Amino acid sequence: MKSVSRLSTLFAIALAGTGFAGIVHAADGEGIVVYNAQHESLGREWIEAFTKATGIKVTMRQGGDMQFANQLIQEGAASPADVFLTENSPAMTLVDGAGLFAPVDAATLAQVPEQFRPANGNWTGIAGRSTVFAYDKTKLTEDKLPKSMLDLADPAWKGRWGASPAGADFQAIVGALLATKGEQATAQWLKAMKENSVAYKGNSVAIKAVNAHEVEGAVIYHYYWFGDQAKTGENSKNVGLHYFRNQDPGAFLSVSGGGVLKSSKHQKEAQEFLKFVTGQGGQDILKNGTSFEYAINGDANAKLVPIKDLQAPKVDASKLDSKKVVELMTAAGIL
Amino acid sequence: MLQHASSLRRSSGRTGGHRFLPALRPHPVATLLALCVALFSLLPLGFIVLVTFDVGWETVRELVFRPRVGELLINTVYLEVVTIPISIVVAVGLAWLTERTDLPFRRFFSGLAVAPLAIPAFVHSYAWITFLPGMRGLWSAVFVAVLAYYPFLYLPVAASLRRLDPALEDAGASLGLSPLRVFLRVVLPQLRLAICGGSLLIALHLLSEYGLFVMIRFDTFATAIVDQFQSSYNSPASNMLGGVLVLCCLLLLLLEIILRGNERYARVGTGTARPSVVHALGALTLPCLLLPILVAGLAIGVPLYTLGRWMWLGGLAIWQADMLGNALLQTLVLSLVGGVLATALAAPMAWLSVRAPGRVQRVLEACHYYVGSLPGVVVALALVTVTVRYFMPLYQTFATLLAAYVLLFLPRAMVGLRASIAQAPVELERAATALGRPPRRAVFEITFRLAAPGAAASVALAALGIANELTATLMLSPLGVDTLATRFWSLTSEIDYVSAAPYAVMMVVLSMPMTLYLHLQSKRVAGQ
Asked: Which pLDDT tens digit goes with each residue over A25-48?
């Protein structure tokens, strides 16, 4: 009995030891580290295709835009990250502001139209996403839809719309509002939003709530609807998409960004990854895959409203002030 | 319940002969080790204090005294005030029926009453939110929380009910009290310690739980801190929310000490107590059966049904062997290593508190226990900030994640160890020294060897807690680490309920041994 228990203890320790060494090793392997704030599935698709094409191993860490941006700033030169991919541009601006990005290779920049990258060339756009008002088709008809995102501040909309305010997506939309309408108007709109809107954790949850008739509409990005329609349509069968257009803040086209960290010890591989994502290989995944985000190099997925018809407001993606947005949202009691 | 079980045992553990014999030596090494662990466990508290000074009073005022914090406080108070009384009623009702009546199949129902513990709280809410998608807000949160946590009350209450001396109830009845009055005036007051201990545990869980409330869309401090963390990493705003949350925890601990009181509950007199009276339910049998059936149906039936349904819908395709196997392996290894580490670090204190209890030791011991009451989100915030600022080489490493696990599950590790060290006679240690072994070797070769079963239980308890830990793992995990809980969480966040099901099932399977252990342990406490 005693020897059995001793044997099993030894066995357990040996198992733990080897397993532990195994996972430590796996985490510490060769290749590059990507902090991926893009959708996990899209990030994985890019990485798999890249590894297949180049043989370079990639370790992905999944998280949120602003979480990673602030994390990178705190980590500074010691950051384990080589590449940073986001869903929206404010996080890129924040990291760039801290001087942590290495300039993007000229060949990569040449692949990306000017409107989707900052003038200083320290990061680049990798994908685009349009703001929409996803609405409950059984409750709202076209004539009852808000003309502008600003209309949602009206008391008539109290309790009738939702959003995912803790997410970087919505915070980028607020950033566009701030850039186009100024601080005072934004603060007022947020105050009204606190009164009027229902807060969801995540855009998929918000669209699901619209579908389940919990709220009449939600301010989210376009691809949640297309993605669900391509799968089962179960979470979006009652949902229609309303594009605000007319250069409205609610017609904001957000730019997802990618950049190489200055502190990276794998500059060449990291630059190569960024080139792949913005090149044909990466953009075809956007065009033909199930992410339904806009390709920024080449044609968008044929099912989407073409970018030029979105009538998005002219917003400099690198000028969105995420810090101010979080401040204003915290002050409004939303965060 | 764990703290409670230990306090139950504390009384029996201290009756060893060492009180009459002078201690061999002041145990400097053990004290030093325990002091180190105690200081380490003060780290989250120190962090809050440090950050508060760091950002300055102005910012603190701005970030703490704002409407949002008030809202969260109100939510938290409502949640606690509504959930706990309901849990008490459910738990005491079930315990009474299964322990003191002739309810049919009561052994079976008593096991079933503990079973919900095998289902992590966020899996409970996953099951309910997919069963009734409209669930949200306070009442839904209360509903799921009661189902997920009432066993924490059931266990100690059932154990106490088994040990009550029926003579007191007889005395009450002979003085003319009706059976209901006997229950209210004689039985219930004797359950006070059990109810206070169990309620404290539930209250603390309500403060620290993240996943359950996110799914049910009910904002608490834990969810708000993670929101802030996701928008701005370890910003002053998230740290200050963490500070308020810690204050809430300390307040609860204090409240429990006050409510617990100082009454004496031990029986005096010669001989042992008779076995307790079994009340015949008679015509009430059928209605009384409804309670355990209803609770089991809601707390086990619905989760099993929804898990089964998702598995059926997903078929074989959702069992992606590589991802699942990887998450399972990492979870097992992390839990095992974390469990062993927590137990090893708890050992000096556990040994001291049995062999050399004193005022200093009491303080050190309190440090070991308080830290387990802190939410994972606060411990993780503290470790993120401390490592990223001062110990960069440790940042995002297994060492840091394991440190968080140790802090969170130190009390669990203490429980089993303490009890079994108390059962190892000090005389054997002394005999070994008298026969020529150096004291340190005597402790290792005699006491710790005898305490091995308790240590194994400690490892298991801590390991199973780690296996289901979500928030700290999310915030601290090193690159490439995915546990069952974090994979489950990222899949449910993408509303991929089908693919999440296998992860939930694995967590339930992993938690079953602990649940069984707790069930048997609570019977052992009652001497059965």
From this structure: 444 557 899 999 998 889 999 999
